[in-house]
Amino acid sequence: MVPLAEAWDSGAYAWTSARREAYAHGQGSAVSLVTAHSNRSKSAEWLPPAADVHCRYVVEWVGTKLRWSLTADEVQVTALSQVAESCLG
């Protein structure tokens, strides 16, 4: 869910090569909401084109960040919070 470059910027740079490999392989195991190409080109505000998966996308993104102890910058937190709020209301 979280692209490798984003994971790297969010803390994966400090991982062992075995943990980075586990992360890379683990990303392909979940049901994908996006194509590999669009996953690589995502920015912090990016959402899948299909609006009906936005809430699930945010849950998966945050879950991935938490599961792998990755950080989120202020732009990401703001974008994710806005989508999450729309899911609740």
What is the count of distinct domains?
1
Continuous helix count = 5
Shape: elongated
Average pLDDT across residues? 81
| Beta strand count | 0
Distance between the termini: 25 Å
Helix content: 55-70%
Which H/E pattern describes the elements? HHHHH
Q: Sketch the major β-sheet.
A: none
Low-confidence stretches: 31-35
Structural class: mainly alpha
In terms of DSSP E residues, the strand content is under 5%
Protein name: DUF1524 domain-containing protein
Organism: Streptomyces tunisiensis
Characterise the protein shown here:
This protein is mostly helical and 89 residues long. It has one domain (4-88). It has helices at 4-9, 17-26, 36-40, 54-67, 74-88. Helix 4 packs across helix 5 (74-88). The longest helix has 15 residues, at 74-88. The two termini are 25 Å apart. This is DUF1524 domain-containing protein.
Give keywords:
mainly alpha; elongated; DUF1524 domain-containing protein; 89 residues
Q: What's this entry about, in short?
A:
The chain is mainly α.
List the helices and strands and how they pair.
Elements: H1 4-9, H2 17-26, H3 36-40, H4 54-67, H5 74-88
Helix pairs in contact: 4-5
Protein name: DUF1524 domain-containing protein
Organism: Streptomyces tunisiensis
